[in-house]
Amino acid sequence: MTIRLLLVDDDPLVRAGLILMLGGAEDLEIVGEAADGREVPDLVGRLAPDVVLMDIRMPGVDGLTATERLRALPDAPEVVVLTTFHADEQVLRALRAGAAGFLLKDTKPAGILAAVRRIAAGDPVLSPAVTRQLMTHVAGEEDGRGRGEEARRTTAAARLAELAAREREVAVAVGRGRSNAEIAAELYMGVPTVKTHVSRVLAKLGLNNRVQIALLVHDAGLLDTAE
To answer: What's the whole-model pTM score?
Structure first.
């Protein structure tokens, strides 16, 4: 299966570098490129990419806005945001909007290619450790502006309360970065059953992917205890 990739970055040198780095992969086809988030919906409609590599900072329509608009569409492609910062409020907002992960722009070519392949296969490119680092950093900034952690925790806990007990257990395991096979072993159920529970969690909570489940579980304070 060939992965169809769309590149979105306002810097033509960055786009050229990505094309040079990724263009030789036999299982990947770069189907198009854009310099502004405004171009993304039309290109996605015409080119049907599987994955979009999206720069988060662009003049005009930035990557955050473009991600929010794109992920609101039916059958939207997966989005990986590109950034120069490990911990950034805009990255977190993009993940909440449905991006499947983020990559630093100085990631080595093999790392970018591996990430695109993982995303295309349905696996998020975001470790639990990075999720916690990002959440802690941004939460500290938000608290400084008067937006406390307690409100986020209360809201997240109320949303998770909509789940059945088994679905909630699966959601917490997803938040801890467990694969379907690992969840199946931990909770003594088959992998198909785990997949069913994950699908139900996504549907009940109106989420796009496992990253958003992890963020919600983190918000609810369910990752605070030692594993």
So the answer is: 0.76
